[in-house]
Amino acid sequence: MHPWHDVHIGAEAPAIFTAVIEVPMGSNVKYELDKASGLIKVDRILFSSVHYPANYGFIPQTYCDDNDPLDVLVLGQEPLVPLCLLRAKPIGLMKMIDQGEMDDKIIAVHLDDAEFAHYNAVSELPPHRLRQLKRFFEEYKALENKTVTVETFLGPYEAMAALAEAREHYARFCKEKS
User: Fold this and answer.
1) In angstroms, what CA-CA distances link 72 with 62, 109, 175?
2) Cα dihedral 144, 74, 10, 69 in deg (nearest 10)
3) 66-95: per-residue pLDDT in tens?
4) Would you give the DSSP letter of residue 155?
């Protein structure tokens, strides 16, 4: 089973979807999906002295302009192990440019975490949490001499639209490959 292609996104997507975790909250190891094998590989140890502020992963059966599945930051109380699956609800979209290319990220909450499941929009989060997310992504590649710019945070409707678009892009991608 390949986590990108064979894990179902969920019948209620884009309102509720399955997320595949690659990097646990608190880690400074950048794990990522090896698209050929479906395993998790170590991409690098972060150069900067920062750690992931949320569980980080991807949404299966999606595809984006960066040739990867759609990224997701899942807010919850606990760090989760790589390759675990969870139910998530999108509450926002972080518009981001990574080295001159769009690299948007869905911000979601873990639906089976009672402390976070009640959030419906990024505007409901403590302002400091959004500052942490923004600062992490603007700093985590700084010592690699790479530039990342977080442009803005948008709400759940924009997140669901981005997810729907990434699903359509995935369908085209799969059709072209076959």
Assistant:
1) 11, 10, 24
2) -10
3) 899 999 999 999 999 999 999 999 999 999
4) -
**Is-catalytic flag, 52?**
yes
Tokens of 64: 């984006």
Q: DSSP letter string over 54-96?
A: SEEEEETT---TTSSPEEEEEE-SS---TT-EEEEEEEEEEEE
Give tens-digit pLDDT for 88-115: 999 999 999 998 889 999 999 999 999 9
Q: pTM of whole model > 0.85?
A: yes
Point out the catalytic residue in the list 31, 52, 56, 119: 52
Token pair 């992504």 is found at 137
CA distances from 16 to 8, 43, 86 (A): 12, 29, 10
Strand partners for 19: 86
Nearest to 62 by CA among 172, 177, 170: 170
Mean pLDDT of each 10-residue bin along the chain, 178 residues long = 96 98 97 96 94 98 94 98 98 94 96 98 97 94 92 97 97 86
Distance between CA 20 and CA 28 in Å, rounded?
A: 18
